[in-house]
Amino acid sequence: MPNNQNTNSSAESTTECHVLAIAHCLLDYLSIHGKHAQPYQILRFLAEQTIYRLSEGKEPHFNYLSIREAVTGESEGDASAWFSRHWKAFNGDFRKKCEEGIQKFAADQGLTVYPWIDKRESDGGAGNQALISLVALQIPACALPTPRNLPKHDIDYIPAENLQLSWWARLLFDKEQVAQGWRKHILVWPTLLWFAVVGLLGAFLLYVLSLSESPLMTRDVIILIYIGLLAWYARYLVNRFSRLVDDRIVMASESMVGFKEFGVCLELYKPDGATSDTPKRARMIKYAATCPSCEAQVLLDRGEPDFQRRIVGRCQESPREHVFSFDRATLTGYRLR
Predict the structure, then answer these.
(1) Does the pTM of the predicted model rise above 0.70?
(2) Which is nearest to 180 in space by CA: 269, 247, 264?
(3) Planar angle of CA 130, 114, 123, nearest 5 degrees
């Protein structure tokens, strides 16, 4: 009997350590990648209160009322309907958006489990609610970092949550923000077509002006200015396309992402396990890291003017002083400034 008691006590202690570790992991993740939407606030409440209750020797389980009061400030009425809406998101779109990033974040911290939300149904009866808590889930083998002899680096990047794209970009990219086949080619051919049309139009207008024997008029000068602007924009589009092909990754244009999104990249990649004959796919992706100097969020940005033709990681609190390199193959970076 004593042996069984010791075994049970050891198992409970191990479980408590796991829960405490994932609560700290989730809190660290939210400090970098969290937003102000209610699902993030629910996770933050669970992480903070789990750490607090474990320090007090209490069970880290929470009912709907306590969660809703912490998130919305409301303490009256039935909270079941409010939480049911969020519970559906935690098992649907929100999970698809965040789970991969949380797994990678936990794996980078040396954990083999990652935090998620769990619900324990009540036995029924008036006033009895289900209890919500954090649960440690096993990180899939594909998400665990493979042993590699990486060079010394200062930060590790992880893919952030799925993104909000602009209305026209959503027509080309699927729910995973990936474009392949004809959708990927649509990203390319309009640029080349625009360049060809501008070139032909410019050559035609210049030819027409050369046939005129009268002096240049204000209208002719305005036409030449418009041609120059169109030619400049066409050159910009072609250079951007060329850079994507050469570097495999560029910063996404503002027209491709939602109004509040920034730090988003357009990347050419091959899925894991693909052969050399597999065509590359295009995807919109956002990489983030934690600044080792001030623990703020680091997002990717253009390196100009100091780091020409480079994508760098800039600390959101000190974007000019805390600057890091970005290696898309190893997802690591070292301090540039």
Answers:
(1) no
(2) 269
(3) 15
Instruction: Note every long-range contact of 86-90, with CB atoms under 8 Å and residues 24 or more positions apart, other chains counting.
Output: 86/38, 86/39, 86/42, 87/119, 89/39, 90/39, 90/116, 90/117
Nearest to 289 by CA among 33, 97, 47: 33
Residue 241, both tokens:
């396309």
Between CA 252 and CA 284 the distance in angstroms is 8
SS3 150: coil
- Whether the per-residue pLDDT at 326 is higher than 90: the answer is yes
- Average pLDDT of the segment spanning 273-279: 70
Give the span between the Cα atoms of 148 and 90, in whole angstroms.
33
Residues 38 and 35: their CA atoms lie apart, in Å, by 9
Joined together, the tokens standing for residue 130 give 């289900």
DSSP state, 116? E
How far apart (Å, rounded) are the C-alpha atoms in residues 316 and 314? 6
Q: In a 3-state reduction of DSSP, which class is residue 283?
A: strand
- Percent of residues in the chain assigned helix, strand, coil, to nearest 5: 45, 20, 35
Q: Which of 158, 60, 69 has its CA nearest to residue 109?
A: 158
- Residue 78: phi and psi, rounded to 5, are -80, 120
What's residue 4's pLDDT? 44
Lowest mean pLDDT among 39-53, 81-95, 311-325: 81-95
